[in-house]
């Protein structure tokens, strides 16, 4: 895409953010991710109580509180990683389809069908957010939490965090528990990993698109499709770039 004048202007503002301003927003991002993960487990705990989930829920609350006090990005990344480990330790407890087993998160490569669906979902969501970031004129390589490089659009990695549980994790759980996905016909194994095949990918994308069309309640209490919610959040981040005193507030599940 051509670099337009507005893109360069926003990029300059993004580069001028102070370390404190970036840290404050990075705290918000990590706290929102941990809170959404905790809310996701709380909802599942009401349906299918487990001791593992109970421990993870308590840990996520503590880690969320610590994230609000973290004084460095490195500390925040450590707390986020610890929160993800706790969350995924309980994710497998939410599955009630015996054909799908999940013991731990594995990414490169994904080690089983559950990890394959999580990784695929995160990637298409990340790509969608990157497109909106570009369309809004933001520089995708300047972020608050993640470090950008020539090959890493860090802002997409920042803004995906608040949507992982409410969009992808909940979708994967539904696809498995309702037996929409078939462990025998929708996956293939190669290069040391497990991936969705030519049958599984179109099926997954169909329900992914349906999920983005569903209406949810935004931070103002209004209902809107998830498509619009993501665009709105990126516009909020854009407002923060122009007015750093108005901190960016990530989306949180109610």
Name the features.
single chain; 254 residues; mainly alpha; Four Helix Bundle (Hemerythrin (Met), subunit A); two-stranded antiparallel sheet; two-stranded antiparallel ribbon; 59% helix; globular; disordered N terminus
Query: What structural class should be given to the helix and strand makeup?
Result: mainly alpha
- Gross geometry: globular
Please name the CATH topology.
Answer: Four Helix Bundle (Hemerythrin (Met), subunit A)
| Order of H and E elements | HHHHHHHEEHEEH
- In total, the number of domains comes to 1
Number of helices: 9
- Residue stretches low in confidence (pLDDT < 50, at least 5 long) are 1-6
- Beta strand %: 5-15%
Q: How many E-type strands? A: 4
**Overall residue-averaged pLDDT value:** 90
Radius of gyration (CA) equals 18 Å
Largest sheet: 2 strands, antiparallel
CATH superfamily: CRISPR-associated endonuclease Cas1, C-terminal domain
What's the topology here?
Layout: H1 5-15, H2 19-47, H3 51-67, H4 73-91, H5 113-135, H6 154-160, H7 164-177, E1 187-190, E2 193-196, H8 200-213, E3 215-217, E4 223-225, H9 226-242
Antiparallel strand pairs: 1-2, 3-4
Structure in words:
There is one protein chain. By secondary structure, the protein is mainly α. The protein has a single domain (17-242), classed as Four Helix Bundle (Hemerythrin (Met), subunit A) (Up-down Bundle), CATH 1.20.120. Helix content is 59%, strand content 6%. The strands form two sheets. Strands 1-2 form a two-stranded antiparallel sheet. Strands 3-4 form a two-stranded antiparallel sheet. The protein is globular, with a radius of gyration of 18 Å. Mean pLDDT is 90; it is low at 1-6.
